[in-house]
Backbone:
């Protein structure tokens, strides 16, 4: 799960209705372009110099991320994916089961925005006893997947952090503390998985999370 590092949660939420239907029509949508569209529509003042893909505490910095409509994902299901234009020689992308009921949100707090997607299934299994709605859960930072949007010094810090390591990603705990592996091998030891398990099951993710495939590696 994830929330801003000061643990106050997010200040506001904007639902992006029919996001995946629109993605199917367009084929692909970079996050930087999405932010521009949202600024044009509602003058939100969103700024970003880079992004960080969040997957259950795994963080992968990149210069942009692109949502892609997939005709079929793993096991022949309709899917959508997120591909990260990573910092350095890293590879990061994930495919998600389009047959689940997803909602996509723009979340904002001071100096930070995020695009998060949360399924009905994840909410029912993990959050429904604590929150009356998916929106409340998302505002509290209770979502497994998102793209964080950073600008200025905050983005420079993210970029420089990943450049200090030969690992494909770093890990952030719910209390905001960071684990920075030195190598790809150490990264996979920390997440108790393997590249093959990530590729075939999203790192042994439970089915209600909707992860069909996941790659987080470094060349």
Residues:
């Amino acid at each position: 799960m994830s929330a801003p590092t000061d643990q106050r949660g997010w200040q506001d939420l904007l639902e992006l209705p029919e996001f995946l239907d629109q993605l199917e029509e367009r084929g692909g949508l970079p996050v930087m372009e999405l932010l521009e569209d949202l600024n044009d529509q509602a003058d939100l003042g969103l700024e970003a110099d880079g992004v960080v893909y969040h997957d259950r505490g795994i963080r992968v910095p990149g210069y942009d991320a692109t949502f892609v409509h997939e005709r079929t994902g793993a096991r022949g299901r309709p899917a959508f994916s997120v591909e990260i234009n990573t910092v350095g020689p890293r590879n990061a992308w994930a495919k998600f089961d389009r047959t689940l009921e997803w909602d996509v949100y723009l979340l904002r707090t001071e100096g930070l925005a995020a695009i998060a997607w949360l399924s009905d299934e994840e909410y029912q299994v993990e959050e429904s006893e604590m929150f009356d709605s998916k929106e409340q859960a998302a505002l509290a930072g209770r979502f497994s997947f998102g793209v964080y949007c950073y600008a200025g010094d905050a983005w420079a810090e993210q970029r420089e952090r990943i450049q200090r390591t030969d690992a494909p990603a770093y890990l952030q705990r719910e209390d905001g503390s960071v684990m920075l592996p030195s190598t790809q091998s150490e990264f996979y030891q920390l997440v108790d998985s393997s590249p093959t398990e990530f590729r075939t099951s999203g790192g042994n993710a439970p089915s209600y999370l909707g992860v069909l495939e996941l790659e987080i590696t470094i060349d």
Summary: The longest strand covers residues 58-70. The two ends are 28 Å apart (CA to CA). The mean pLDDT is 92.
